[in-house]
Amino acid sequence: MAAQNMDGNIGGDVTMFHTSQLDKLINLARESSMWYLLFGLACCGIELMQTGGPRADLMRFGAIPRASPRQADFMIVAGTLTYKMAERAKLLYDQMSEPKYVISMGSCSNCGGLFQAAYSVCKGVDKVVPVDVYVPGCPPRPEALTEGLLRLQEIVRKEPWSTKRRPAGGKTEVA
Predict the structure, then answer these.
(1) CA torsion 11→16→18→19, rounded to 10°?
(2) Could you give the residue ranges of the DSSP H alpha helices within the chain?
């Protein structure tokens, strides 16, 4: 054990050892049961559906699609986000319980993509909700979205249990 690194003033070796193991156990359970909210808007939505299919199979990582924001742990925004839909995306994000995460999938949701010159297209979903993982591509393959989910699981694994959320302004991951 790492007894020499423990601080004896807090409660001894046993307390510090068990709380660190508790953090690992809770984060293991959280990262292995990530339920996602479907928010497919355009052609990336088709790739999102393909990722849930038998070939890519996100369920083997514990990711299960949910239709209700109150049951979801993270949201996958896939496709062109217009200002009209941005209001709905923000509403759905606000209805999710803490801790909540967002994966931005595809060039259109990352920065506007091919349609960024249009007046009605939002120049990235990060202007509306905080994004944790960006998945590049137009449209990204199911393997890229699977990599994005694995990056999100790494974020959850490293998170301290007491806060359950990264500090604001933290670094976002690119899959």
Answers:
(1) 100
(2) 12-31, 43-51, 83-95, 107-111, 142-158
For residue 4, what is the enclosing H or E element?
Answer: none
The residues, ordered by sequence, that sit 6+ positions from 149 with a Cβ below 8 Å of its Cβ are 34, 58, 61, 63, 103
**pLDDT tens per residue, range 90-101:** 999 999 988 889
One-letter amino acid at 17 equals F
Measured torsion, CA atoms of residues 78, 80, 84, 90, in degrees rounded to the nearest 10: 30
Give me the mean pLDDT over the 131-142 stretch: 90
Segment holding 74, helix H or strand E: strand 74-78
Report the 10 Å Cβ neighbour count for 1.
7
Q: What is the pTM of this model?
A: 0.77
Which helix (H) or strand (E) segment holds residue 122: the answer is: none
pLDDT tens-digit map of 63-85? 888 888 888 888 989 888 899 99
Kindly report the backbone phi and psi dihedral angles of residue 128, in degrees, each rounded to the nearest multiple of 5, phi listed first: -110, -50
Which of 112, 111, 92, 110 is CA-nearest to residue 36? 92
What the block records as the tokens of 101 is: 């995460």
Question: Which residue in this structure is represented by tokens 């998945």?
Answer: 135
The partner residues of 37 in beta bridges, in order of sequence, read: 66, 75
What span, in angstroms and rounded, lies between the C-alpha atoms of 5 and 85? 51
